[in-house]
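Task: fold both queries, return tokens.
Query 1:
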Amino acid sequence: MFVYYGTRHCGPVDAIAELGEVRTRFFHVWFVPLIPIGSMFITEDTDDGVRGFKVGLSLKSIFVAWSRTALFFSVIGLGVFCAATAMDAVDATGAVFRLLQKVDDPTKIPTPKLVSAVEGVGGLACGASSMGACVLSWWAIGRVFRNARGARKAELMGMLGVAPGLDDDPFD
């Protein structure tokens, strides 16, 4: 079995427009970030790697990388759950409809068949909404932690040797 492993930069945070962003270098297996090695302010991605300078280990970047990875695998697991639940719901609902065609009094349909059909449809709805929540969370985590603000922005710009602009709000 082929196992792909190595190091890569993940968890982009504290971006400053047209200058760069902070990413953490992780040891990974199959692109899953496992062990953080160090963080860098990356100014440029090159064919040979990245250019930038080291900053202290960014817990924010580690959080973004690990949480987005967990959400990715959650979406995959929920997709499998939804597929299995959908198949059960179709089977149970089909059985109820077949019974409805045979029985002239709907009150004589066995309760377990009805419960199974309702559980299947409810499980599918729950799984699909949970998938939506995971996708929304994945997007929100990237959006909330994306840009550097306030003191962190000033610190990174100072490391770059660039003075903050006069129009920058120091309290944003």
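Query 1 returned. Query 2:
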Amino acid sequence: MPPEPVHPLITTAALAAELGAPHLRILDASWAFPGPSGQPEPDVKSAHQAARIPNAVFFDIDVVADHATDLPHMLPSPAVFAQAVEALGVSDADRVVVYDQGGVRSAARAWWMFRAMGHENVRVLDGGLPKWRAEGRPVESGPSKTLARPGRFEPRPAPDLVAGFEQVRQALADNAVQVADARPRGRFSGVDPEPRPGLRRGHMPGAVNTPASDLFAPDGTLLPPEVLRTVLEGAGLDLERPVLTTCGSGITAAIVALALARLGRWRTPVYDGSWAEWGGREDALVVTG
């Protein structure tokens, strides 16, 4: 049995009170979301060096990935993941807090990655760096400090948290598991183009659109549980039935999984390939509207 999970979120106040605590590892898991065609992406690594939470190190989702596939930032093997996080000083005994520069965005992907590798003692900073800075909390700049010791991380893969192409196709075919698509409504309907070239527009037949952007309060924190439930049920999810999540490339899908964890639904799988895989396969059914 997997270990007992911890609360998926940590507040800025709680993290501030723990700064410098032993066995606390803070990771900046920011990722540059693709913008409209021709729009330059932000340089999240430079931004990390310019201002970050004290003692944070950068967790690069594109580097801690499976490079044997042309799909973006797919979950790496357990050995590759362990080597990467050990180099960041993360060990089995550590409490991990992940955040990002945009609020609660790509940090949810890092949260899911750690859990998929069996490390349940991981939390997302609610509101991320924007809320931290808005409250006047400390930041540091310059190159990340080299940790005094490497970590020792033993992965314990949790395959029930990772969905593949065939699992998703079966879920759609027999309707035993709901598929929640976290992409914006325009991309889900096929009105708006996909940011990655070569992908068809539209969505999987039978998928439910649950845009990740609907799950946040104005201050960038995740909505309270009772409001999350209302939003997800209003989108068409039955929260008493199994759900798996998908999006463009497995990043915002993890936000929906995080929201479901906030509601006590801890074992929600994320379709790792998401639309980057599904929308590029000719044998995958796609509908619009």
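Both queries returned. Flag for query 2: Strands lie at 9-10, 24-28, 57-58, 95-99, 122-125, 162-163, 178-181, 208-209, 243-246, 270-271.
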